[in-house]
């Protein structure tokens, strides 16, 4: 991408002209700025000059009635949104003057504008700022050197550098369970830049023994969702990173799918769990070692008061570490009865005698589950499961009626859980492959052990603010397992609150640092999938803004359940999502920034377009799907607050503008009705085809291609009319030709149309 000064300014002598006292702001606009804007790709109609904006809060005059006007020189429009603001100055004024920056910043952040970038040009220099970082310009150059900076200018500011949220696009779909997974058309050549976004994946939480039931953790991603993401965004042999790894689902699933993995967490308990879970063992030797430990335990089990006292003295005990405030007792040892301390101490003592390191680790993992069960905070759950309070209530609460666990039976149950897990993993994770996975304690904010551009895919699920102070809550395990947590670890832990009373600002800074590190280590054209489970939409802004300012391009967010609802459903639908979101970014050479909707825009149109879009995409949508999609759109375009205020109840719009099927609970476009908003023509065709063929089938009628076209075309009148060939290719995706040119919807197993 190159330009010559001659092409921009003709024979103008830049050095002479700016010294000319008659060359003032007006000349800067006409002679310097306008040609640059035109060359960047802005036509007259997308350059808004001297627009008056009402000052959002200041008014002047004695009766305070006259609103102050703000008048930016230029606002550039992309797809009807304001993309960036530019103010011209005369050559005598500096572009990095703080008053000027403040002034142009106020235009950029005005509710009617809300642009990502703003720029100042005085004819000699050009300064470009991101709205969120006014302290340093992201681009500063002299107009004399514009040729050298042209590529960057185009990258940030050309109309193609902006996107309006996620756009619906039509792609081939294949059916997996209940979800559509877009098929990879070019399966022989894996092209990272052409990977589709995944639709919501049905959760199969308990189906993998390697995760379910091995060891509890505070939160856990669903393994099959993570596996689908890994398979979609990376290829075998690739290096996958999760820097907030928790129980290790990402790294383990990476290995199970022939990738290499790096698993990092600041919590030593989490790191221990993963290391022990994956350590390869001979299952017969493990069983033998288990039996040996069990027999010894039974022989020596302390029962009488005297024996218990002795055992506590003789066998290892947990460090009496302080428990977090709000706990029912002060120190870790008080979470256990004397008998429990003696029992656990003996078990640990016997396990530590094992000589095979991997077997020892695996037995210690089982011991660690015993710690979770044999304590005074444990109580049975209604489902026969049960939990210790740290895991269930995120607090050390002595159970009103602590459950007395049968120690030996409970230990035996651990073996029954770990053996199938090891068996499941051993084909992929064994002595030959173990060097392909690195499990380490460390902080996501500093990945310096990794060179830049060395990772192929990142799937990560960071802490969500205040909810779970991981290090504080893991103290019971860390105390028993002799795992050290340093002051530095607490400093680096990305949470709000907790024992160290961390502020929202600290949390935000740590998250931002970790996103920067993820950007640094990821290769170009590769993906980051970031689980967003935060309740506060403000946090969304931080994630997107940090990711964009690092150079990530936002590709889209997908609602994804995680087996349980991490968001409490609220009366006002727009306060919460029904599950979590997976936000997908790509590291690209020329990232496009998301455009915010200006708040003068008609939100009703966006709402209607979003509802129709999700209905078209899914061939009918549930209230929950519509709600989630509106939240995503509201977050992307920055009008969630308005949505909350003006659309707290969607029922009105939905029932008046759409049909509702009580059996399927799906909203659809009214029978024979049309889409009112601009939905991608292929999506519309697909939607009409499916509903038409389905209706014909219900009525036992056969239809030919010509009849289908005759039905479809009038419905598409108000938009672009597709070619017959386009209709045919979409038809081929969803239906099969049968004799005499008749068409019938594909049967279950190909596309499950009955479920739509
Ligand atoms: C939501 S959990 C991850 C759960 C994980 N996805 C799983 O499936 O088990 C977040 C994790 O981030 C860890 N964490 C917090 N701050 C960190 C930091 N600065 N660096 C690395 N890990 C951190 C916590 O210890 C916790 O295990």
Outline the secondary-structure elements:
Blueprint: H1 5-9, H2 14-19, H3 25-40, E1 47-49, E2 53-60, E3 66-70, E4 74-78, E5 81-88, H4 98-108, E6 117-121, E7 125-130, E8 139-142, H5 146-157, E9 162-163, E10 173-176, E11 179-182, H6 223-233, E12 239-242, H7 249-256, E13 260-265, H8 268-278, H9 283-300, H10 305-314, H11 338-352, H12 357-373, H13 389-392, H14 407-426, E14 437-441, E15 455-460, H15 470-473, H16 475-480, H17 487-492, H18 504-521, E16 522-532, H19 537-550, E17 552-560, E18 580-587, E19 593-594, H20 603-618, H21 623-637, H22 640-646, H23 651-657, E20 658-661, E21 666-669, H24 681-698, E22 703-704, H25 705-715, H26 724-734, E23 735-738, E24 742-745
Bound molecules: S-adenosylmethionine.
Description:
With 756 residues, the protein is of the alpha/beta class. 39% of the residues lie in helices and 16% in strands. It has 26 helices and 24 strands. The strands form 7 sheets. A 7-stranded mixed β-sheet has the order 14-13-12-15-16-18-17, sandwiched between helices. It has a 6-stranded mixed β-sheet with strand order 1-4-5-6-7-8, sandwiched between helices. It has a 3-stranded antiparallel β-sheet with strand order 22-24-23. α4 links the parallel β5 (81-88) and β6 (117-121). α9 crosses α11 (338-352) and α9 (283-300) packs antiparallel against α14. The longest helix has 20 residues, at 407-426. The protein is globular, with a radius of gyration of 31 Å. The two termini are 46 Å apart. The relative contact order is 0.08. Residues 170-187, 565-570 and 749-756 have low confidence and may be disordered. Bound molecules: S-adenosylmethionine (SAM). The site of S-adenosylmethionine has 25 residues, from β13.
């Amino acid at each position: 991408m190159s330009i010559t000064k001659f092409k921009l300014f003709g024979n103008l002598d830049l050095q002479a002209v700016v010294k000319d006292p008659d060359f003032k702001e007006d000349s800067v606009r006409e002679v310097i700025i306008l040609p640059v804007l035109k060359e960047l790709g802005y036509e007259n109609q997308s350059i808004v000059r001297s627009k008056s904006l009402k000052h959002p809060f200041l008014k002047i005059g004695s009766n305070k009635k006259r609103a102050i006007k703000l008048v930016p020189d230029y606002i550039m429009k992309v797809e009807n949104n304001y993309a960036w603001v530019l103010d011209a100055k005369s050559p005598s004024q500096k572009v990095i003057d703080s008053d000027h920056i403040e002034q142009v910043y106020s235009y950029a952040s005005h509710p009617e504008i809300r642009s990502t970038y703003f720029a100042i040009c005085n004819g000699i220099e050009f300064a470009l700022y991101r709205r969120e970082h006014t302290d340093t310009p992201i681009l500063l150059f002299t107009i004399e050197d514009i040729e050298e900076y042209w590529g960057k200018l185009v990258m940030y500011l050309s109309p193609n550098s902006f996107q309006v949220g996620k756009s619906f696009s039509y792609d081939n779909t294949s059916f997996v369970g209940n979800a559509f997974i877009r098929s990879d058309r070019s399966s022989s050549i894996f092209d990272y830049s052409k990977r589709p976004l995944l639709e919501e994946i049905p959760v199969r939480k308990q189906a993998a023994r390697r995760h379910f039931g091995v060891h509890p953790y505070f939160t856990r991603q669903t393994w099959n969702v993570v596996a689908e993401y890994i398979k979609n965004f990376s290829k075998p042999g690739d290096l996958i990173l999760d820097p907030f790894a928790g129980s290790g689902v990402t790294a383990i699933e990476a290995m199970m799918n022939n990738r290499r993995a790096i698993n990092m967490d600041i919590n030593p308990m989490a790191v221990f769990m993963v290391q022990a879970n994956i350590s390869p063992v001979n299952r017969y030797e493990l069983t033998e070692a288990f039996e040996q430990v069990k027999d010894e335990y039974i022989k020596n089990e302390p029962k009488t008061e005297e024996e218990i006292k002795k055992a506590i003295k003789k066998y290892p005990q947990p460090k009496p570490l302080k428990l977090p405030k709000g706990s029912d007792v002060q120190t870790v040892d008080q979470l256990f009865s004397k008998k429990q301390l003696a029992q656990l101490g003996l078990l640990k003592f016997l396990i530590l005698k094992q000589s095979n390191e991997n077997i020892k680790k695996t037995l210690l993992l089982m011991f660690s589950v015993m710690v979770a069960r044999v304590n005074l905070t444990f109580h049975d759950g209604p489902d026969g499961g049960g939990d210790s309070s740290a895991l269930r209530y995120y607090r050390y609460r002595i159970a009103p009626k602590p459950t007395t666990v049968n120690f030996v039976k409970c230990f035996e149950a651990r073996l029954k859980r770990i053996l199938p897990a090891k068996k499941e993993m051993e084909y992929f994770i064994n002595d030959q492959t173990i060097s392909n996975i690195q499990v380490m304690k460390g902080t996501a904010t500093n990945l310096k052990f990794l060179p830049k551009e060395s990772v192929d895919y990142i799937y990560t699920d960071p802490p969500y603010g205040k909810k779970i102070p991981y290090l504080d809550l893991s103290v019971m395990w860390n105390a028993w397992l002799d795992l050290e947590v340093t002051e530095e670890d607490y400093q680096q832990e990305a949470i709000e609150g907790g024992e160290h009373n961390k502020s929202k600002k600290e949390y935000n800074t740590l998250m931002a640092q970790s996103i920067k590190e993820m950007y640094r280590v990821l290769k170009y054209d590769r993906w980051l999938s970031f689980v967003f489970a935060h309740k506060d939409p403000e946090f969304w802004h931080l994630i997107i803004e940090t990711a964009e300012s690092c150079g990530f391009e936002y590709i889209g967010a997908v609602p994804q359940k995680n087996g349980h609802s991490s968001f409490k459903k609220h009366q006002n639908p727009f306060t919460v999502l029904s599950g979590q979101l997976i936000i997908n970014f790509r590291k690209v050479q020329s990232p496009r920034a998301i455009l915010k909707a200006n708040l003068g825009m008609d939100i009703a149109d966006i709402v209607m377009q979003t509802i129709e879009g999700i209905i078209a995409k899914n061939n009918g949508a549930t209230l929950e799907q519509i709600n989630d999609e509106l939240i995503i759109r509201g977050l992307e375009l920055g009008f969630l607050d308005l949505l909350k205020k003006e659309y707290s109840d969607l029922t009105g719009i939905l029932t008046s503008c759409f049909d509702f099927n009580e059996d399927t609970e799906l909203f659809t476009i009214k029978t024979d009705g049309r889409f009112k908003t601009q939905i991608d023509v292929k999506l519309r065709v697909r939607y009409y085809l499916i509903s038409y063929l389905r209706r014909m089938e219900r009525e036992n009628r056969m239809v030919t291609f010509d009849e289908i076209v005759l039905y479809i075309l009038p419905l598409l009148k108000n938009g672009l009319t597709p070619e017959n060939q386009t209709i045919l290719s979409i038809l081929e995706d969803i239906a099969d030709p049968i004799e005499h040119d008749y068409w019938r919807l594909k049967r279950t197993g190909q596309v499950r149309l009955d479920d739509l």
